[in-house]
Write a structure and sequence with these properties.
This protein has a five-stranded mixed barrel. Helices cover 0% and strands 67% of the residues. It has one domain: ATP Synthase, domain 1. With 89 residues, it is mostly beta strands. The protein starts with a strand and ends with a strand. It contains no helices and seven strands. InterPro entries: ATP_synth_F1_dsu/esu, ATP_synth_F1_dsu/esu_N, ATPsynth_dsu/esu_N. It is a peripheral membrane protein. Keywords: ATP synthesis, Cell membrane, CF(1), Hydrogen ion transport, Ion transport, Membrane, Transport. Produces ATP from ADP in the presence of a proton gradient across the membrane.
Length: 89
């Protein structure tokens, strides 16, 4: 499966910068999932869980998010979160 870059950024720090196969975020109207080549998009995030599926395999990375925005371009997803913390596996 094709991969793309994903960054998770809060006002305090950059939590993630990785190559992923899929990103799932909590939108205000429900969950949204993104794969490589997704149409450009900017949307508001709801409180919930972000899930990143790493391109190199391994366990899904999870982050608890409280508000913010997601921006999708043809080769990158940027999550600008009001606050986010990694969820222990």
């Amino acid at each position: 499966m094709a991969s793309f870059k994903c960054d998770i950024v809060t006002p305090a720090e950059k939590l993630a910068a990785c190559e992923v196969e899929m990103v799932v975020v909590p939108g205000v109207e429900g969950e949204m999932g993104f794969l490589a080549g997704h149409a450009p998009l900017v949307s508001v995030l709801a409180d919930g869980e972000i899930r990143l599926t790493p391109a190199e395999g391994g366990p899904v990375q999870r982050y608890e998010v409280k508000g913010g925005y997601v921006q999708v371009t043809d080769d990158k997803v940027i999550i600008l979160a009001d606050s986010a913390t990694p969820v222990a596996a």
